[in-house]
Amino acid sequence: MIWTERLVETSEGPARLIYNRSGRTAATLVLGHGAGGGPDAWDLETLALALPAYDITVIRVEQPWRLAGRKVAPRPEALDRGWLGALDHLRTRHPLVVGGRSAGARSACRTARKAGAVACVALAFPLHPPGRPEKSRADELLGAGVPTLVVQGERDPFGRPEELPAGVEVSVIPGADHEFTVRRDAPVSQTDALAMVAESVAEWIVRTVRR
Question: What pTM was estimated for this model as a whole?
Answer without folding.
Answer: 0.95
